[in-house]
Amino acid sequence: MDSPSRSSVIIIGAGVSGISAARLLAENGIEDVVILEASDRIGGRIRKESFGGVSIELGAGWIAGVGGKESNPVWELASQSSLRTCFSDYSNARFNIYDKSGKIFPSGIAADSYKKAVDSAIQKLKRLDQNCFNDVTKLTELPCSPKTPIELAIDFILHDFEMAEVEPISTYVDFGEREFLVADERGYEFLLYKMAESFLFTSEGKIVDSRLKLNKVVRELQHSRNGVTVKTEDGCVYEANYVILSASIGVLQSDLISFKPPLPRWKTDAIEQCDVMVYTKIFLKFPCNFWPCGPGKEFFIYAHERRGYYTFWQHMENAYPGSNILVVTLTNGESKRVEAQSDKETLKEAMEVLRNMFGPNIPNATDILVPRWWNNRFQRGSYSNYPIISNYQPIQNIKAPVGRIFFTGEHTSERFNGYVHGGYLAGIDTSKALLEEIRKELEISSESQTFLLEPLLALTGSLTLTQTEAVSNLHKCEIPTQLYLSGKLSIPEAIL
């Protein structure tokens, strides 16, 4: 069991926001940081796995927002690490829409349906913004809902894949509209390891620093004016002056972590208002490929009378030539349904869809991989999804600290929530806010020493040093900030 020695900051969660937050603290001299990670690895919802002889990304897979006037910080990290990526061109996906008989919809019909869906979505957004400012439920009451299989399929790719033509997405506006699929055997997570090794001890490419503690499931967070106490499932206790909580929005909505005292109503209400997206990429390995390849063929769509039913497909030949791997993406309700059934049943459903598209004689898949983000108690979903409304107060409330608890993660990013760079930048922003809080606390403590010095100087009976000079000399002693922050040294002790 770990001893309850006090540290400056405890960071809960070693995803991209937790690691970026810890790095900034270390760069600013706060190195007695403890990182508590519930799983056996860093990365959070960035996770690679070996499948079909290649490295695939179960969670975040793309670097979105490349090619604009501003440089995406995650793209910069990838460039510095020579991370292998492939450009993803979604623009032709709408012209590769298959019906249940295996026929591709004519390009004219697909283009008309797409334009109709975009126009309808724009009108919905305008009416929502003007008429139902805070009531997102009215969105479903608006007319022109998609009904036919092709309308349902296009609606799915428009909204579940956040096409920029519907609304101005900050990521695309700021960083550019190009997206690159990570196709590197080291995985997307390699970027996190590169960040971590700048402030944590490593050996042979592995983190061996005792400040990173894996398999530590935080279950209780006690907080007061004097500090925080964190208790983990294995009975360990950790104490610090502050906590940075980078758990996902899904975890915050669950009962995994209890707060004592409970979080205030304004905080819990804001957390509950945020939607959690479940985004499931199902990987299928085949003995050979039977689908169209070449320019404009990476993505294809299946039009079904049930929205989101094995709709969006991608082959991995561009990323890994000869891999013979297909990926189908499900979201939300369909994701939860599939997570609850066996992989054998999911494989059966996927093969029926593929045979509808490409005929009855295609080979059976030899392997399947179904991630389960919703049923993972350390994630409880894939990413945050705020309702499209003009009121940004819920995001501000989710981000706002509660006493000595600071919150971070992609769900605290007003402009980039849902993206890896949103989590990365949120970690930096949270650490900056915490550093400012620490600075203020030190200033208040320093000013209070004026009152402590007066009786001390009076007792000496000597005024050879003026009070101003005494305070000045006190500052020149340069008391180590770390000793103060860790609670091992108080200001009065330093004076005496």
Automatic annotation (TrEMBL):
Domain Amine oxidase: 16-434
Pathway given in the UniProt record: Amine and polyamine degradation; spermine degradation
KW Oxidoreductase (keyword) present: yes
Reported cofactor(s): FAD
Binding site for FAD: S17, E37, A38, V218
Gene3D superfamilies per record: 3.90.660.10, FAD/NAD(P)-binding domain
Keyword annotations from UniProtKB, A to Z: FAD, Flavoprotein, Oxidoreductase
One matching Pfam family: Amino_oxidase
MF-aspect GO terms: flavin adenine dinucleotide binding; polyamine oxidase activity
Oxidoreductase among keywords: yes
GO biological process terms held by the UniProt record: polyamine catabolic process
Entry's family note: Belongs to the flavin monoamine oxidase family.
The protein's name: Amino_oxidase domain-containing protein
Native species: Cephalotus follicularis
